[in-house]
Prior knowledge:
Layout: H1 4-7, H2 12-21, H3 32-38, H4 53-69, H5 87-104, H6 110-128, H7 132-146, E1 152-153, H8 158-162, E2 173-174, E3 177-178, H9 182-189, H10 198-205, H11 207-234, H12 241-255, H13 257-263, H14 282-289, H15 296-313, H16 317-320, H17 326-329, H18 334-350, H19 355-358, H20 361-369, H21 394-400, H22 417-445
Helix pairs in contact: 2-5, 4-5, 4-6, 4-12, 5-11, 5-12, 6-11, 7-11, 9-10, 10-11, 15-18, 15-20
Bound molecules: iron/sulfur cluster (SF4).
Amino acid sequence: MVSLSFLNPLSTEGEEIVREKGSLESLFDKNTDLLRIVSKTNISNDEYTPDTLADLAVKRLEWYLRKKNDKQFDHNDYAFLFEPEIFQFDVIAFYIAAQAIGVKFNPNSRESRVFIEAQGRLVEERLEKLPPYERKEAVSNLLNLLIEQDNIKWTSLSELFGSKKINLSELILDNGEVVLNKSDFLLKFEDKIVNRPPEKMYDLLIGQRIKELIINRMIMQNTENYIKRVHEMSANIEPHPSLIQIAQMISEKLAERSTYFAASGGAGEIKATALQHEAFPPCIAKTMEGVGSGNRNDAIVLLLTSFLSYARLYPAIFRNDVSVKVSDIDSNLQIVTNEILPLIYEAADNCSPPLFEDDPQEKLNVIAKLGFGVHSDPDLKHEGESKWYTPMSCDKIKIHLSALCKPDATCKKIGNPLSYYNRRRWELRNSSQEGSSKGEAEKGTGKP
Length: 448
Ligand code: SF4
């Protein structure tokens, strides 16, 4: 049976491991026991081998970042993270990474968010790798430890709803209580289910899926709370130098993240650069000039916001097909605040009547479409509350915003305004290069 601390390092067992073996003095010493376990796996490149506990702490985040963003990612290079035998080292690595982040960074920082997300993903994948009977037993034991299972009031999970880690609509409730067990479900709903076997309905609506979702989100929430506690305590205690050093290593690893984006999918030519207005497609150029009341709201909030933000920050989104947030590229939101939003607000002002004067709520919706929830300004602490919308396709624009679509020759070759933008930038770049080499050649022949 897998150790529960391998899935939930914040368990009592996990705390004991750290107390007994988590000395901060030896975090950078070569650890032969750790290396023995790691060497059992099939790592393609020695660069990925963690030989110290500090290294393992950083590898946990590196695994998540590369898996999410790097098309060269090879699972074998991180297979050691899924070896149950590594659990004691893994627990210590979890605590030192959480403490390093807590002492050095804000609980809402990118470092905190990535660490919490990585922990959630690790739990998910570690559970997936267990044999079915062991997975079921582990889930049941974890649930017992994480929540009082009899009569779970939905309010007892309010922290998860509040932080949007789980949606109330994902759960089955009865008289304010969350139904998780099959026997409870059958007792409460068997009579009401017609034309379908009630057991099948239980598997469909609840089953292992909801139990694992709750476990996962609770572990993420507890990780977040732990980082907050460390951060609060660090105001009064001098942090250990090893933790500061590990925090620096984590920060550098996150900075490398943008190189994964650039390297993914050979999209070297489609990099984030200043906006080139002359490459905007006709529909966007028209929106920038202002739109009449019929199409105004969707043109600004849906079309322009998504187009300008991706064109400026991540024009290769469709080619690379990765999951990305605004702060992955614009870590302090300077580009969003100083370049992207002013253009959107200017276009909104050009509308007739001016959009935000007429409908102030739409200003909040612009922020929401950038992934920062319904707020008046983008703020890292709200990132992820909504989705960063990708630009709609030409087909959709032709249906919903037909007055804006005035296709030109380039439009025949693309299916999305962002693809138009990338193609047109490439054409403009090529024609300017051709122009300059022609000029060079003419100079060589003495032509005027
Ligand atoms: S075809 Fe597409 S890119 Fe061209 S104007 Fe119409 S919607 Fe815009």
